[in-house]
Amino acid sequence: MASDSSKVWSVFSLASALGAAALAKKGLDKTWQVATGRKPPENPADPDVELREAVAWAVASGVAVGLARMLAQRRAASYYTRSTGHLPPDLRKDNQKA
């Protein structure tokens, strides 16, 4: 049964993280366009993209996507805990049992 719980959490966690990352990227693209008047760089590694724009995009997208994923996974863990009565397998401390 612990294996089933672990699989459920893995799928639930992955789905929430991917959904949050996609929403964050979409929101960041729109915010970038409003703030700069230009589309975000398609490939910041492209030498034709100005270095400061590439760095700004990398920092903004990393922070936005990372924060969105973390918040989504926290909400997913909270829902999982309310539903099962215990933390997801990956979040349990060594001394906690299911």
UniProtKB/TrEMBL annotation:
The chain crosses the membrane at residues 54-72. InterPro entries: DUF4235. Keywords: Membrane, Transmembrane, Transmembrane helix. This is DUF4235 domain-containing protein. It comes from Nocardioides oceani. The lineage of its organism: Bacteria, Bacillati, Actinomycetota, Actinomycetes, Propionibacteriales.
